[in-house]
Amino acid sequence: MPSLSNLIDELTSGDDLRAGQASAVLIRRGTEALPLLLGVIRSSSPDHRWWAILSLAHIYHAQADQALVDALGDPDSSVCQVAALSLRHRPLAAALPRLISRLGSEDGLLSRLAGDALAALGALGTPALAQAAIDPSPATRIAAVRALALNEDPAAIPALYAALEDASALVEHWATDGLERRDLGMVYFKP
Length: 191
What we know:
Blueprint: H1 4-11, H2 16-29, H3 34-40, H4 46-56, H5 62-71, H6 77-89, H7 96-102, H8 108-120, H9 126-132, H10 138-150, H11 157-163, H12 169-181
């Protein structure tokens, strides 16, 4: 079995195949690898930080959780993206404020991944998403309503109905989509 030090060398080798194989072994080693991975996230190399965050996403520990949340503020968008993707599969309430702040990101992929992670929070994310759905920024509103549409929390329904009146066609599209997912797309009123 390779040493943790050798695995970190492979993870930071710059070769994606070797890094991927090392990541898989580090994940299996779990909390034993945690201190070294936490050291790698302080690297000046975005590639090194990316692989460390990807690995930490599979180690269930409070320090790994905090690293994922902190990575949403990384100066490199690819590191933020892998953190947001990880938080979609491993929802953490502590990430909510940073995820909300990423909804209107100029990086469309990051915005979408942050929305997916917020949707995965379910009821925990609904109030913040409902507030973001009325943000002055159209990009933030679009991402928020998309996340509300994907969120399975019934408390998202009033925000989706309110979004039907938005000036943005994309906000209206996602509101309609969210209501249709809940079989609430067509509402008839008796005159």
